[in-house]
TrEMBL record:
Organism, as annotated: Anaerofustis stercorihominis
PANTHER family in UniProt: MEMBRANE-BOUND ACYLTRANSFERASE YKRP-RELATED
Entry keyword DNA-binding: no
Protein name as annotated: Acyltransferase 3 domain-containing protein
Keywords for this protein: Membrane, Transmembrane, Transmembrane helix
Short name of one Pfam family: Acyl_transf_3
Start and end residues of each Acyltransferase domain: 23-332
């Protein structure tokens, strides 16, 4: 069965062998989503701290890099429609699927259908999905999709920032977003719906990506990457927390967080553009970030369940790198099924 899926993957890689000059962006997205999967394993703390320091900002920067101002200028309804189709529709489909799996297989069999705890958990899960509270407590099997609502909100905020024609006004608004993000990270304030609070800082990262595309900074700063990488690494390691979390508004030292995430993300752009502009396997993962993001936690649950249930696996230690490999392998058929059935589902509703 696995061999069959690998053959399908090979076919997909050939099909996705695009000639576009932005293939390196798919490589960057692929690197980012692979780091997301790695970060969700039981990895060493130092690995987690490094990954968490920039992998989510990287995706906001990519979104800003790909943002088409000319397409959306003075066309707010078009922006909403496009981004709703790109982010919110997948969010809804993934949320419903994971909710059903949780209700029937995970929660139902484990706790018992109809029990008080069963009903309470399902209600809590439903509230979490509507609110988009991306934690294991509120969205057990699909909490990473918090990013989809956050990036949707960031695109809306970003639209209004770019509607201001002057650079000064844009910078004033971005500074305001930075101040709000800093304040929210320091006070015990209620998490805002649809991750609006995370989207404030995400918009700032989007603007960095927008500037990178506009001025082709990743092309102009070829050798600067050798300098800014150690600076970014120093900023990350100097931050006084175990890991950064845009989801939970945990930033630690705000300045070090900004420097580390921005510098390392820029380095990823530079190194990928010059050293790895094409890699079909990583590109393929980059083209399928949403299903990977959406089903990664579900795969993790089943990998750990298999390890506990099947005797042959009990003899093998489930180290973080073994878990990572199995997660990647199981995500391949899920991606294939998503690409096959998601368009049909969307078309039918």
């Amino acid at each position: 069965m696995l061999l069959r899926w690998m053959i399908k993957l090979k076919s997909e890689l050939k099909k996705n062998n695009s000639t576009t000059n932005l293939r390196y962006i798919d490589v960057i997205k692929g690197i980012g989503i692979i780091l997301v999967v790695l970060g969700h394993t039981q990895r060493p703390e130092i690995v987690l701290k490094f990954i968490q320091s920039f992998h989510m900002p990287l995706f906001f920067i990519i979104a800003g890099f790909l943002y088409k101002r000319d397409k959306y200028i003075s066309k707010f309804s078009m922006l909403i429609k496009t981004k709703f189709n790109s982010y919110i529709k997948p969010y809804i489909i993934i949320a419903i699927f994971c909710y059903i799996i949780y209700a029937i297989i995970i929660c139902g069999i484990k706790i018992g259908f109809g029990s008080e705890e069963y009903i309470n958990r399902l209600i809590r899960y439903l509230i979490g999905l509507i609110y988009s509270r991306g934690t294991w407590y509120w969205m057990p099997q699909c909490s990473p999709i918090w990013f989809l609502t956050a990036i949707f909100v960031s695109n809306i905020i970003f639209y209004f920032i770019l509607e201001n024609k002057t650079l000064l006004k844009q910078l004033i608004l971005l500074t305001f977003l930075l101040i709000i993000s800093f304040i929210l990270s320091k006070i015990n304030f209620i998490k805002l719906p649809w991750n609006i609070d995370s989207a404030f800082l995400g918009t700032v990262f989007m603007y960095l990506g927008y500037l990178m595309k506009r001025f082709e900074l990743h092309k102009r700063l070829k050798w600067v990457g050798l300098i800014i990488f150690p600076l970014g690494l120093f900023a990350v390691l100097s931050n006084n927390i175990n890991y950064v979390s845009m989801n939970s508004i945990i930033y630690g030292n705000f300045l070090f967080m900004l420097l580390g995430s921005m510098l390392l993300s820029v380095c990823i752009f530079i190194f990928t553009y010059y050293l790895l502009p094409e890699c079909r396997l990583i590109e393929w993962f980059g083209k399928n970030t949403i299903p990977i993001l959406g089903f990664n936690f579900l795969v993790i649950y089943f990998v750990k369940s298999i390890w506990n249930i099947i005797p042959i696996f009990n003899a093998i230690e489930l180290t973080w790198y073994v878990e990572f490999i199995f997660n990647i392998l199981l995500l391949i058929p899920i991606i294939y099924l998503w690409n096959k059935f998601y368009p049909k589902i969307i078309k039918s509703i």
